[in-house]
Amino acid sequence: xxxxxxxxxxxxxxxxxxxxxLEVRDDNAAxxxxxxxxxxxxxxxxxxxxxxxxDQAEDLAQEVFLRVWxxxxxxxxxxxxxxxxxxxxxxxxxxxRLRRRREVSDPEAGLxxxxxxxxxxxxxxxxxxxxxxxxxxxSLPERQRAAIVLCHFQELSNIDAARALDVSVEALESLLARxxxxxxxxxxxxxxxxx
Length: 195
Fold this sequence. Notes:
mainly alpha
């Protein structure tokens, strides 16, 4: 018994959200609310970068937490960090939404904010750059785009991003490499316009 208690303590030290998830599994709505406070902003950000629309991203983030509540009894401790698991849920919902509807996204949605103190020409150039990055990112296949967003914009480790995408670390690194090459090529074609 002492070994499993020690193991549970070690897991909790590595993933402070295990306690909350166990409480959610036991139908504790306050624990779900605490998870929402911790991760809703991050999930909205990653989803916005994937779907290109803030309202859709907020709707999807709400769906993530509904899904977390619904499937909490099936959640298995120790397979992945809770945050990583929630990113996996978010990505699955996002992929489903993108497959159902291929909408034109707002090219200026969410990648970069423009410094309000910048001069008008600088602001225009910053918006053009953000639109170019958004367009290049949108042109990537879904899994490459998700890998780039998780690692570069959400700053997940390769291990956590790989778990969120349900691929090996090597497969994630391959997705990142192909995605970066495609982004570089797409942005290089527009480099003269963005200088």
